[in-house]
Each structure stands twice: as C-alpha cells, then as structure tokens.
Amino acid sequence: MCVTCGAQTHRAARTGNTSEETVTITEPPAGRSWRAHSPPSADAGAYLDIERGVIDRRIWKDEGLYQQELRRVFAPSWLFLAHESQLPKPGDFFTTYMGEDPVVVVRGKDRTVRAFLNTCRHRGMRLCRADAGTTRNFTCSYHGWGYDLSGNLVNVPNAEAYPDHFDTADWGLREVARVQNHRGLVFGTWNPEAPDLIEALGDMAWYMDAFLDRDPEGTEVVDGVTKWVLEGNWKLAAEQFASDWYHVNMAHASALMVMSPTGKGPKTEIANTPGRQFTSPLGHGAGFPVHPRSRFDDAAVHEHYDYDQLRERLGSARVEGPMTTGHATVFPNFSYLPVNGTIRVWHPKGPDRMEVWTWVLVDKNMPEEVKQAQRRYNLRTFGPSGIFEQDDGENWSEIQAVSRGFVSNRTPLNYQMGLGIHDDHDPDYPGRVGELYSDNAARGFYARWRDLMNTPAWHENHTTPEGDRD
C-alpha cells in the first residue's frame, strides 16, 4: 500500500535478455479516482485571428482540437439539459448528453431536478437506456446494480461477496455538479466552481426572455424531441444561429418564394430588412430584424398575441426586436428561433458529425389549436425535412466535406463583415449591439471558444484525489 495516498500497489516482473525489471502499478483506493493527466493542449489562437477576422477551417476537423473542446469547452460550460415541462412529477426522467458524456436528468422525490452521468459504476454500462419516462429507481441491465432517484447505490446483487471495505456510499452515480433553471430551461455544468447560470448568460438573458417570458405561466414543450444526424462540425451550426442573417436571402431563396403570398419571394423592404445583432463576450449571440412585418409567420400564432399587452410586459424594444423572426445561440451549443418556436442542441459526435435535437416550445396559455399550428409551422420550416432546415444542413455538410482537403485546410476563411464598425452600445438594447448583417457575433463566439480552449479547466487545476460527487 502506498503510504502517501492509500493506493494498493502491485509488483510485476518483466523478463527478457536484460536483467529483471520491477514495475510498480498503482490503483486508487475504493470509491476514489484521480484526475487523469490531460494530453498536451494546442494553442487555439494559432487557428484564429479574431482581430483581423480570419479563421482556419482546421478547427472543424482536427481530432486533437475536438478532444480539447470536450475537456475545456463542454466540461466547464453550462449546457442545456431539458425543459422543466418534461419532468413534471417525481420519478420523471430524460436522457441526453453533455458533450459526449451521456447523462440522465431526473426529478427526485423532493422535486429537485438533478442530473447524473448515465453509466453504471460497476462496469460502465449505460444505466438508463430509455429516452424518457418515469421510474422509482434505475437498475443496470448488465449486473443489476440499482440506484435511487438521488443517485445513491441502493442494491448490489450478491453483495456478501464484496470485501469488508466495500461501501455503497462510495459508489453512487457521478452527479452533475450544478443544475439550474432559467424560465423553464434546465442547464447543467460539471464545473463545481462555475458562476451561477444567470451570470453565465449575462445580457443574453434579456434577449432570451423575449421568447421565454411572453406568457405569465411560462412555456412548455409539445410532442417530444426530434433528432437527426448531420455530417458537419457542431460549431458550424452554433455560429450561424449566433450571427448569420446574411445567408437568408441566398441560401433560403426557394423557401422564401414558396412561403410568400405572391410566390415571388418577400418584398424588397422585408428581404433587406434592417435589424440588430447582439454580441456577448461570453460567446452568446443573437440577431433580429426590426421591420414591423417581421413577426410570426404563422397566421394563427400571430393573431393569438395581443401586442399592446406584450409591450407592457416586455417593453417595446423586445417586442419590436428579439421577439421577431430572429436567431440566437447560447454558448456553446444551445440555439433557438423565437418565431418558429424551436429550441435545439447541437450535440458533438466527433469533429465531423453532430446530432441535432429539437423541441417545439410554446406558451402554456396558448389554446391547443394555436399550439398545434406552431408545431406544424415548425415542422414545415425547421423540422428535419423542413424547407429551411434542409438548406442549412446541406451547407454545413458541404463545408465539412471540403474541409478534408489538404489545400483547403491551408486556405484561410473571411469573417470580416462589420469589422471595425462602431457597435458598442444601442440605447434600446443591452450589451454590444450593431447592424444585423455582420460577423461580429461569429467572431465573439470564436473568441470565447479560443479563450476557453487556452485556459485550463477546473479539473486540470487540481492534483489531489477527487471525490465522486465534487
């Protein structure tokens, strides 16, 4: 036994043509673990020149950078887990991912929402294999270890075969360090030292509330989760939803023609709409038109709202701005479109693949027929076969395919729209706000990505053994 840490040690003999060599193998004591030594980290700043607006496309394909993202971007960040309406009563659960770590989100008997790493502590089997449901406990289908809704290990078949020092209290589920709720959206982070969610959102919360706080009763999701896989890096989607109104008239030209009353596309004053773009130093971004016609495209939803009441509740700036046909990303990988009622997560599945999960979000007080109208409108536009969604997926997949080339990866890309244009403040909107047609929020997104990639996360700043629930 190691006298400094209590680890069990073993000696192994290695023989050959040379003299016998003794190798010492250390094991952690029961119920404890060490933080693995992280591999050498790349300087993410070498791939980005934010000040010049130039980006190296290798950030979308390099496996080493991707693994660095998992430990330095996803592990310490607040990530969207579920909507509270998916967990109305004790025992309700929903399975999702934080980066590539599977987690199960559950409402406990005390009605507290918790999240746990979705793997059994015995052999690492996925513990809960259902997408969602209701349960009294979680039992591993491999060897039968069972856990209660608070993550405690409560059942071990053949427990008498384990040594005396085996203690079930040491082998509960690994709990997500912090879970918090903003207006029905449940986020979690593995970082026990993370700032509160509202602080991590910053000014972005003001823009989000134009979508989330229209109804005094709040919001709810309807008809579950839609999921599909795209061949593209997750950042391509996240940055577009943060910053890119620029692509709309070109990439979605045919969709705009189909949806316009004349079949010829929107009028010029609407197609070239004025608008504003919000850029956060925390990596968040949002863009929105301010034309009075840029409201709800579905007539039933548009007619449902009393805009005078909304102005009293939210203020005119929000009703005329971020409540309209806008787009937004909460760094790193949660995005939404307020008019379409879509919220979504871009789950990373390697450097060249993402899994898209989307929900339809509606106001609780909407009549059922209006909720269903919003659901249908969402499916027509930004469902997996939606006329806008397919355009975006095709673009991201093509960018990823081109990024495999040798010369392609040595040809820098231009992110200079709006560079150097004064956009520090707008009296109507909080934070840094400028023109709608701009790459500012994309540059802000990548600046935050660069800073996190170049900063050791909390788990890299400790050398002492860690507890299972820290």
UniProtKB/TrEMBL annotation:
GO molecular function list: dioxygenase activity
Biased composition range(s): Polar residues: 15-25
Highest classification ranks of the organism: Bacteria, Bacillati, Actinomycetota, Actinomycetes, Streptosporangiales
InterPro entries: RHO_NdoB-like_C, Rieske_2Fe-2S, Rieske_2Fe-2S_sf, Ring_hydroxy_dOase_asu_C_dom, Rng_hydr_dOase-A
Record-linked PROSITE patterns: RIESKE
Pfam families, alphabetized: Rieske, Ring_hydroxyl_A
Keywords, ordered alphabetically: 2Fe-2S, Aromatic hydrocarbons catabolism, Dioxygenase, Iron, Iron-sulfur, Metal-binding, NAD, Oxidoreductase
UniProt xrefs under SUPFAM superfamilies: Bet v1-like, ISP domain
Protein name, per record: Aromatic ring-hydroxylating dioxygenase subunit alpha
Renumbered residue ranges of the record's region Disordered: 13-39
Segments forming domain Rieske: 79-176
Record family assignment: Belongs to the bacterial ring-hydroxylating dioxygenase alpha subunit family.
